[in-house]
Amino acid sequence: MQQYRYTPSFGGLPSRNPEDSKVLIISCPLETTTTYKKGTREGPQAILLASYNLELYDEELDDIPAEVGIYTHPDLSLSLGNLKKALEEIENFTFNIIDYKHFPVFLGGEHTITKAILRAYTKKYDSFSILHLDAHSDLRGEYEGTENSHACALREASEKIKIVQVGIRSMSEEEKDYVKERENIKIYFDYKLQEKFDAFVVEDILKNLEEEVYITLDFDVFNPSEMPAVGTPEPGGLSWYQVLYLLREVFKNKKVIGADFVEFSPIPGLVYPDYMAARLIYKTIGYYKKYSLRA
Ligand SMILES: [Mn+2]
Q1: Which of 115, 162, 208, 237 is least surrounded by Cβ atoms within 10 Å, i.e. has the fewest?
Q2: How far is the CA of 64 from the centre of ligand 1 (A)?
Q3: Is 198 marked as binding a ligand?
């Protein structure tokens, strides 16, 4: 059992009650199966510290998203030495906090946290889809001897839930064969999106999603020149504005029931990616406030 450090409050906002906050930020600094660059364990803390530098007014939305009420939950005391137990802890925690009144935002940590989060969502919600933004399809049955690898993050959920993957530019032949057999997995490959990413493509993505949507975003969906601080970088990828465009349209047209932002792996001395990660999360909160809380 490793107790984590103090949890900075998102945006440096004064602490408040979870009850009168609409947005819950939950850090899951889990890292056990990363295979390339290490460091996602430091992700949530780096994002939260960078968020102190956010401008709370958003010029695009002409709004102050923070006024929605953001509660930063203290770090989960995960059993980091025991992956199975840590995943159960994340699942149980998630199950207890999710409802229709709050918007949970989970910060990783490696992508394996999504497997545990989705177990809880599957128990609580009858019908929803997953919007998965990532360079990797993460649909392997097992990887390096474990089914709890970051490379398998979406496999279990894909056996029951509709998944729309966006930005994929790395997958194994085994995954390709698996996807071929399944009708509930739709992939928008990056090489295709680089030819055409417009309103028609986004509309098509939306058409493939159910009314209720859970978003899981691996920071490596971005082009590494914009977002280099990831565990498994891949050339190509979406831009800042492409991702914002997609997120905005999803919030405008669907009911988003939760989101996670994973695989952020800070680079010591390079602050920009930490700030970009914080800004992306704040943008997401802004879209939630503006489009999901409409009367
Ligand atoms: Mn990835």
Answers
A1: 208
A2: 31
A3: no
